Amino acid sequence: MNLFICFLKMRYVPIVLYTVISFFQGEVKAQDSKLSIITIIQEFESIPDLNAQNDLLSSKLEENKDPRNQSILKLAHAKCMIDRSFLKSSFTSLYDLNIEEIQQDPYLEASYNLVKARLDYKLGKLDKAIEENNKAYQLFSEDSYVEEANLAAINHAFYITLKDRKKTLDWLKKGSKTKENRLLFYSNYAFYFLVDDQLDSAKYYIKKAQNAFETRENYLYLDDYRIQILMATIAEKRGDRATENQNLLQAQELCEKFGMLENLREVLNALSHNFEEEQKAEKALVYARKADSVGQLLPNQMLSEEMIRLDLGRRMEEIKEKKDLVQERLQNEQQRNKLILLSSLVFLIGFISVLFLWIKNKRKTKSLIQKNLELTKCEKPIHSKVKKNVDTVLIEKLQKLVIEKEEFQNPNLTLDKLAKKLGTNRTYLSESINAYFNQNYNRWINEIRISKARNLLVDPSYQHYSIEGVAKEVGYSSISVFNSSFKKITGITPSQLRKGVLSN
Predict the structure, then answer these.
(1) Residue 15: what pLDDT?
(2) What CATH number has the domain bearing residue 419?
(3) Where are the alpha helices (DSSP H) in 376-425?
(4) Boundary residue ending a domain (137, 167, 195)
(5) What is the pLDDT of residues 483-499, one digit of tens each?
(6) Which domain holds residue 49?
(7) Could you tell me if residue 253 is inside a domain?
(8) What is the pLDDT of residues 454-483, one digit of tens each?
(9) Between 20 and 30 A from 139 (CA), which of 148, 318, 392, 444?
């Protein structure tokens, strides 16, 4: 059996152990009160016992009431459970997360994507893992979380090696080597050269990873397991069966001690295959049965995988649909508010315009009423100065007949009838009126009638007269013609003049 396949099926992408101190534009990023995903994972992974890990999670959740810190704790715990193939526990931690809260915090969202990528890789969804991990890298980088971004970049190099090795080195360069992440950095370089069958280069970086592991203060079984698998893989490729089996047996011991069931099954199958090739049938059978027994423990875990695929995905979709609905309602509400505001502004502008015109018209009407009241104090209409070549004798007769004798009260009074009464012809009389009064006969007679009507409207003794009665009194048979002529000459209506008198 090709042990390299066993390595590819590893469910562990190492997490670097360090405390984050980031500098951005000369300012220290305050992290004192906020938990770091890397630091918490380090703390969980330093505890090999599963029950002890769960107890630690419970105690830390009790200590940290801040929702953001609780999300970090659950994400770190889920990551550790994923690495050990305890998917039910990881599912519980992930399901308890407030997805909406996570999406509002870039650091939480990046940490979630980091763990989600791990889960996708575990489920065999490499493309999805690459997509999620790339999101994590972008979010960490944008907010200047340097060490987390380095971790995401080195993890990405591991994922991308399985997909497109040409991009691996670029991602390894993005995840700069530091004292804290050098084991991860070297082991991923070794993995890259193993895939490319450059065994000498792979061995060189495996030794560097071993040195980093041996000089580390805290022991992490997952790092130990990874190194054993890397060494077993290079031995298998070189045909060194003894060294390969030795590394596999150490990997088996780690899997059994720390409960990595799925990895244990792969290691047992690899050992069974090796013993079979060495014609050690009895040993091969023993390891095959052990692998079978471990496999019997995994169906429930596989069920959990399906639950994660369905429930977690459905949950994200439901939250997205809910957010989309809220956003749509918000947009509709904003649009409605804009329309209401616009309508209100239009109404207000219209109202102010109408009010302004009304006030202006009222003031104008008041002024015209006052002017007309002053005109009523004049006994005779004001006429033009006498002009040369005007028959003043005829004009005097005309005024005496029409005004003094009140011939204007006759609604049927025409220019022809006046000419006959004055002993002249129509044409001569019309020319005399135009020359003396600077207006034609109809305009002249209307001004006389309206002047008289104006006096009657303000006269207290005529207050019992209706407007129509006043119109007939001054020679109008049509109330509409009277109103039109009155407004044209005075600028106001008969009713406005009468109301103005009463208000004064």
Answers:
(1) 30
(2) 1.10.10.60
(3) 392-399, 415-421
(4) 195
(5) 999 999 988 899 888 88
(6) 16-23+35-195
(7) no
(8) 989 888 888 889 999 999 999 999 999 999
(9) 318
Interacting residues of 149 by C-beta distance below 8 A, sequence separation 6+: 137, 140, 141, 174, 175
Residue 62 lies in a domain: yes
Q: How many domains does the chain have?
A: 2
State in Å, rounded, how far the first CA of the chain is from the last one.
118
pLDDT in tens, 355-414: 888 887 777 777 777 777 777 666 555 454 445 578 889 999 999 999 998 899 999 999
In degrees and rounded to multiples of 5, residue 259 shows phi and psi of: 70, 35
Smallest CA-to-CA distance from 155 within 14, 320, 253 is with 14
> Residue 140: which CATH number?
1.25.40.10
CB atoms within 10 A of CB 257: 12
Please say whether the dihedral angle defined by the alpha carbons of residues 190, 196, 199 and 201, taken in this order, is positive or negative: negative
N residues, the chain? 504
For residue 105, give both structure tokens: 């915090």
Q: Is residue 315 part of a domain?
A: no
Q: How far apart are CA 500 and CA 493, in angstroms?
A: 11
Residue 11 token pair:
């469910």
